[in-house]
Structures are given as C-alpha cells and as structure tokens.
C-alpha cells in the first residue's frame, strides 16, 4: 500500500497498530526481511544518499558513505548476525521455596515506535534506530529532519519502496507535523536532537505514559595531559572536531589543558588543519558547509571568543566557516556557554588534572568525554571521578562505531541508549516468565 497523500496522524498510527496487533511484525523472518531490504536500499541507493547529503550539508561522498550509508549497513549486518542470540530467552535461577519451576526473561516487541531524527547525520540517525526497532519486531513511524530537506525527501520516497508499508511509514514535516504526531499514543518514542525539544517530546510522551529514549547533545570536553605528543593529539582532535564541520553530537567541543601544553598544541592544531584541508579549507572537497543561515550566524558570533590560532574566515553566501582554533578562551566566553555544534575549537586552560575534573563536574554531564594521556592513573581517575555518556581515551568520536557498546547520554546529554544489543533492549519489553508444572 502506498500513501501519496499524507495520512492524518491518528489514522496512520491506528493502521500501523492494527498491523502490529495482527502479528505482522513479530516473526523473526519478517524482521530479518525488513533489515535485508533496508540494506538493499542502502547498497542500491548509495549514490542517491551521497547526492542528497551533499545537497543538504556539503558532505563529501567519502564522508557520506563512511558516516551514514556504510555505518548503517554495518549496524544491520551486526544485527542480522546476532539477532537469534539476542532473542534467546535468558534463564533465571528459581528460589528453592518455589519447588520445581523454571523462570526466564524474553524480549517482547513494544508496538508502534516513533523515531524523530535530526539534520546533522540525517540518514544515519533515522535509519540506525529504525533498524533496531524493526529487529525488535515493532512497527515504525519515521520522522526525518525538515532541516535536511533533500535527505528527508529521499528517505520519504525510498523507504516505502523497500520496506513493508503496512508496518513502516515516513512522515515528513517540521514543528506542526511533529507536534501532531506527538499527540498520538506510541509505544516508544526515540528522539535525537536538542534538550529543549527533548523536554517537549518527553512531556508529550508522559500524557500516554510512553517511554522515551532521548539522544541529546552538550559540550563534550577533551582533556590533554602534559607530555603527550602534540602532533598525534592534534591530528586526532582535528579529525573528530572538523568531521561534518563540527556538526557532530560527539565532536570534541573544547580542549582543557595546562598553559604549557596549550602553547605547543596550538601550533600542532594549525598544522593538523592544514594537513587535512590545505591552506584554504573552502577549496577542499572533504570539507562541508553549515546547515543553514541561522546556525551560520550563531557560529560567526562565537568567533571572537578567544585569540585566533587558525581559521576565522567565513562566507554567508556559501555557509562556509573555516576550521577555527581559539586559544586562551575564558570559561565565561560566549563560545563556552552552549554546545558549539560547528567548526570552532576553543582551548581553555586549567592548572592540571584536578582542575580539569572539577571543571567537567561543575557543568552538565557531557555526551562524551575524551582524554589524551600516557598515564594509567589519569585514565583511571577520569573514568572513576566523572560521568558522561561515553568516554574515549586517545580517540574521539569512534566509540560509537563499536556496535556492542551502548550509545547514549546521561543527565542533560540524554537518557537510554542504542546500537546492537542495546537497540534490542531499548525497543523491547523484557518480560519476566515463571513456569511451574501443575500437580
Ligand atoms: P533538529 O532541529 O533537526 O530537530 C530534531 C527533530 O526535532 C526534527 O525532526 C524536528 O522536526 C523536531 N522538532 C524541532 N522542533 C520541535 C518542536 N518544537 N516540537 C516537536 N518537534 C520538534 O535537530 P537539532 O536539535 O538542531 O540537532 C542538533 C542537536 O542534536 C545537538 O544538540 C546535537 O548534539 C544533538 N544530537 C545528538 C545526537 C545523539 O545521538 N545524542 C546525535 C545528533 C545530534
């Protein structure tokens, strides 16, 4: 069934719930079939996705494949490989006073899941949660971001061509459409985006007692210890920061280091940026653009927050902002007040590890914390004394490519997690079962 005219949200959800209740989505064969078709869509339409991601965000084809198309393919392959194991009931020991009996837990699908995606990885952040929701046996309503309109249109056109439209629907639109969707009763809502809208989603979900997963953002710090190799640290920091022009939820937001290390790191970062994008990043095919004028203007206003080490060039017409490093940035500077979500890397100076830990713990719990250090004690202290969604030693961003690690935030950076087996847990109910023979 195809629905060229947008269905009213109440009817859409009722239709999908009827399919769920009829048992359409429960058989493992249906789930694996949907995952395979999703995979086929990505392999057959890879070039389409590369083109729309370039149109929306100036992403290079290499980046479109590695961070979106191939990323989701890997997530699907991992799920297909392990789904049977994840779905196996897990036995639980039975206390002696119950006599002869057995007990176990089993995963039940939840029903109709709403997935709301943002614009920065507009394909990955819609399709990876969808893959988890389908693997867990749910019907899915997918809402791509209106701020990545070309990708949204491609997803709305292609997904119904590949997936079972009795149980999967794509709804395009902005705030009014999302608001109308949120009035419906879903069995789970999975939202990726900012904390302000996260609160709106959670309040709407509360009316129906619908559980939510909120994948939010925040300022992810990168601590750089003294006696680290500045060139190696700078190369990895710059790669993580300037990927997708800094519009990555787990990008290192700012650097925390002592004044001496800061001086050597400055030069190393300038060199790393030039190695990656040449003397003029606007001419580099590997460097994208800011999503829209609103974000461009917001970011340009932050460029004066510290001493310019490299970058600073910008052009509103093409929404280009050069990879920028700012030194001697005060914690009170505008750039330190909210998540940057763009290509500006401030260096904030602290006396050492103790002050860095106090700095991190004095602010919202970040989605990720990174540290570059040769010291086991420093690693152990950071792991034990701080709280963040994820923790990366020596390499930013990459923890989320490990499918057996949960990806999610804590506190202001979100609640719940997904990827691999954690998607299965998120999109299922873990049912407790007791079985005792009669007589
Ligand atoms: P966005 O503006 O695209 O919004 C996300 C979704 O929310 C969209 O589908 C949009 O339609 C919907 N929305 C917007 N306003 C709404 C409203 N008033 N009511 C209901 N729905 C509404 O994305 P964004 O928030 O600009 O994304 C950037 C943020 O997302 C950053 O904070 C970033 O750190 C975070 N992020 C987190 C992750 C993660 O996995 N944790 C990943 C990417 C982005």
From TrEMBL:
InterPro entries: Ald_DH/histidinol_DH (IPR016161), Ald_DH_C (IPR016163), Ald_DH_CS_GLU (IPR029510), Ald_DH_N (IPR016162), Aldehyde_DH_dom (IPR015590), Aldehyde_DH_NAD(P) (IPR012394). It comes from the Bacteria. GO terms for cellular component: cytoplasm. Residues 13-433 form the Aldehyde dehydrogenase domain. CDD domains: ALDH_F3-13-14_CALDH-like (cd07087). PROSITE patterns: ALDEHYDE_DEHYDR_GLU. The keyword Lipid metabolism does not apply. It holds the Pfam family Aldedh. Keywords: NAD, Oxidoreductase. One of its GO terms (molecular function) is aldehyde dehydrogenase (NAD+) activity. One of its GO terms (biological process) is aldehyde metabolic process. The active site is at 215, 249. Belongs to the aldehyde dehydrogenase family. This is Aldehyde dehydrogenase. It comes from Streptomyces naganishii JCM 4654.
